[in-house]
Amino acid sequence: MSVGRQYRFVPRTTVHAVLFATGVAVVTCLTRLGSQPLSWDEAVTVNAGRRSWTALWTLLGHTDAPLGAYYAVMHVWIDGVGLVGIRADEFWLRLPSAVAGVGTVALTALLAARAYGPVLGATSGSLLALHPLFVFYAHDARPYAFVTLLTTAATVVMLRILRTPDARYLAGYAALAMLALSMQVLGAALVLAVHAGVAAVRGSHRVLLLTAICAPLAAAVPLVLVSRRQAAEVAWISGLSPSSVGSFLVRVVGGGTAAPVICVVLALGVRAAIRRQSVGVEYAALVGCAVVPIVGVIGLSVWQPLLVPRYVLVALPALVVVVVSALGGVRVSPRIAGALLAAIALANAGGTIVQDAQTYKYEDFRAAASLIQGSAHIGDGVVFLPPSYRVGMEPYLGNADTDRGLPSDVALSGAFSPYTSAVIGGSEVNAASIDVRIDAEQRIFVIGSGPVPPLHTARGAAVPDVAVATEVALTRNYSLVWIRRFGDVTVSLFRRERPAA
After folding, report:
1. Residue 8's pLDDT is what?
2. What average pLDDT does range 193-206 have in this prediction?
């Protein structure tokens, strides 16, 4: 590719390419880490990280087993920053993911620079550092930036092994593969499947490399079996449809503005590759790492809906390299090539700036907690519908300090706190106890996905579960004072209108 040859200030070496892309990543991944409140998923990370090791093991036996290694890392991280007197707030909780994001960009630039030269290396790494989906999860206290870093490192080592087999590289690859699988098994397994396919057709040293790939995959089978028993965790994902696939693909490529340009570039690259009638092993590996996770998740969604962009974050490093190399393989003037790359970069940067400027990601638990702290009276109660919302509020209400007093958690069982129960959100008392506890309160805050709907269940009628018991008790003797929405979380205040029987 001739883009950059006529300009003076371009990367001349692989080191320069890596440093340039890393500098862009430092700006996009390490800034504004603490600006947005924790999302519900991030609050789950806090819940897992603050547990004792025994309580964490109990949780993993019930839910989130495939994320156990990440929770263990965050447990150590939270304890570690606490030892030096730092409270693990939003910034510190997201910092490990941000560092993983910067590392991934550096490895992507290294990978592309070795294959296609410093200019394409710096360009590929920079495009990844600007990608909205990538930056979102670099700013997220979840494992997806980690698994992307590990799979990208494994790809770099795998390509090195193809050129120079060495026992140290094989051992390093096996360790990276095992760590990636333990962080997020789905994305890692799809990338490793590509590696196995490349190793199988490569010819020389295939046995050694296949052993290094298949051993971690075999070791991860028990984790897959456990995760299958916890399939209810992904029951919220909508089924396969043309609109869901389209939305999924648009987010993966960087957003609606970047998608048309990227499609044009890929079409030109495919045409050029067909004309050349020769595809190197490195290019084939990168195309596989970019395509197989995306196609694989779409295919698996026929059986079990999994169409969530974060599950294919592992494909983004290879995808940006393939896009840039595709443009490098076509016969266009440097100005046209530069204009296409600039259009992609500007589209990605615009999407990243817009998403970072949002007040919150999905739910604004911080603002909801602030409202409750300012409105609560001593003796108020609070209930969570559904109970999982307790986890989202805990990092804010649980650490609050107010002279007016915080509402008491009416439904929470005294035997199990949110940090000891095997159930996300803590274990709650039975329906009969809920009815009695709510009737003892003058004011009740309800935190959840919406206001309590009007029910017309007669007093004394049987109630099937805790949620319905709560709704019955509230609608029987209470009236709605106000309701406030903070994204996907709603806070309602109910006040007693009739005395308890």
Report:
1. 53
2. 82
479 φ, ψ to 5°? -125, 150
**Beta sheet of 478-486, edge-to-edge order:** 408-409, 381-385, 443-448, 489-496, 478-486
What one-character-per-residue DSSP string does 374-417 give? HH--TT-EEEEESTTHHHHHHHHHTT---TT-PPEESSB-TT--
Task: Write the DSSP assignment of 205-254 as a string of letters.
Answer: THHHHHHHHHHHHHHTHHHHHHHHHTGGGGTTS----HHHHHHHHHHHHT
DSSP-derived 3-state class of residue 186: helix
Share of residues in the chain with pLDDT > 90 (%): 46
pLDDT, tens only, 327-337: 776 666 777 77
| CB 67 within 8 Å of CB 234 | no
Give the contacts of 422 (CB within 8 A, at least 6 positions apart).
58, 59, 61, 62, 63
**Of how many residues is the chain composed?**
501
The pLDDT of residue 49 is 93
Q: Check residue 457 and report its DSSP letter.
A: P
Q: How do residues 337-355 score in pLDDT, each as one tens digit?
A: 788 888 888 888 999 999 9
Whether 105 and 114 have beta carbons less than 8 Å apart is answered as no
Q: 304: Cβ–Cβ under 8 A, 6 or more apart, which residues?
A: 231, 234
Look up the pTM and report it: 0.90
Using pLDDT thresholds of 50, 70 and 90, give the confidence band for residue 273: low
CB 125 within 8 A of CB 18: yes
Q: Is the pLDDT of residue 7 over 60?
A: no
- Give the per-residue pLDDT at 109: 97
Q: What is the mean pLDDT of residues 309-333?
A: 86
**Distance (Å, whole) CA 152 – CA 280:** 19
Q: Is the dihedral of CA 491, 495, 497, 501 positive or negative?
A: positive
Return the amino acid letter for 269. Answer: G
Domain locations along the chain: 14-34+89-356, 365-496
Nearest-angstrom CA–CA distance, 366 and 348 = 28
- Of the candidates 149, 144, 153, 152, the one whose C-alpha atom is nearest the C-alpha of residue 186 is 144
Which residue has 């005294």 as its token pair? 414
Structure tokens at 305: 């809906």
Averaged pLDDT of the chain: 85
Rounded-to-integer distance, Cα 141 and Cα 113, Å: 30
Letter for the amino acid at 79?
Answer: D
| Residues 479 and 497: beta-carbon distance below 8 Å | yes
**Spatial distance between the Cα atoms of 440 and 462, rounded to a whole number of angstroms:** 20
The backbone torsions φ and ψ at residue 463, rounded to the nearest 5 degrees and listed phi first, read -115, 130
Are residues 212 and 187 in contact, defined by beta-carbon separation less than 8 angstroms?
A: no
Q: Give the model's pLDDT for residue 403.
A: 42
Is 60 exceeded by the pLDDT of residue 204?
A: yes
Residue in 265, 296, 315, 382 with CA at minimum distance from that of residue 151: 315
Q: Assess contact for 412 and 439: CB atoms under 8 A.
A: no
